[in-house]
Amino acid sequence: MSDKYDEYFDSQEANEDSKSDSRVALILIAVFVVGMVFWVSGQ
């Protein structure tokens, strides 16, 4: 399993960075969707 990660990422640190970046992106998308739902329901 770790061999496949080495193919996609230069190091373990790069792998961890990509995981945290994707987590932040998912949180931002979730906040945006919830905000739009509240904004639309308030119209």
Explain this structure to me?
The chain is mainly α. The protein is 86% helix and 0% strand. It has helices at 2-8, 12-41. It has one domain (2-41). It is built from two helices and no strands. The longest helix has 30 residues, at 12-41. Residues 1-20 are annotated as: Disordered. Keywords: Membrane, Transmembrane, Transmembrane helix.
Describe how the helices and strands are arranged.
Blueprint: H1 2-8, H2 12-41
**Cα distance, first to last residue?**
50 Å
Largest sheet: none
Mean pLDDT rating: 79
Which stretches of 5+ consecutive residues score pLDDT under 50?
A: none
User: Approximately what portion of the residues adopt beta-strand conformation?
Assistant: under 5%
Order of helices and strands: HH
Quickly count the helices: 2
- Overall shape: it is rod-shaped
- What is the helix content? over 70%
Count of discrete domains: 1
Write a brief caption for the model.
The longest helix is centred in the middle third of the chain and has 30 residues. By secondary structure, this protein is an all-alpha fold. Keywords: Membrane, Transmembrane, Transmembrane helix.
Descriptive keywords:
single chain, 43 residues, mainly alpha, 0% strand, rod-shaped
